[in-house]
Here is the input.
Amino acid sequence: SGTNSNVTSDSGLSPNTTYTYYLRNGTSISSPLLAQKSCTTSQVEPVVCTSDTYNKASASIEPNPASTQVTAKIIALPQNCVKKIKVIVKKESNSTVMYKSYWKIGYTHSWDITASKWRNEKYRVYIYAVIDKGGKTKTKSFPVIYLNVRK
Here is the structure.
């Protein structure tokens, strides 16, 4: 019982395999058994990346109102065909580069807009991703997304 008592994670375990967990009152295998639980890990579906994965991939940005972070995200099916992401943010008014990331593994990247230099401006966000097209990867650039910062 308690918080997260039925939460499991398949991380690091073999797929489609049953594991039994034992809760004992003590530190050895002969300690009294209090409870046990068996769980079966998920069946792993093969990842199939195709040219459709590349062609249909899209990008978005998600400002987080609860913090000062903005997250760029690549949407693709399957998602793990997206290998890397890179973001460049420029002021709309004069093309000053406000933020430029290095290539980051994965399909999301966040940056901070706390500083006063970000206030009351409009920005162009350029997003690039390396996507598996079915055995070979290719860099894709996405249409510019506009970000308005008001503080």
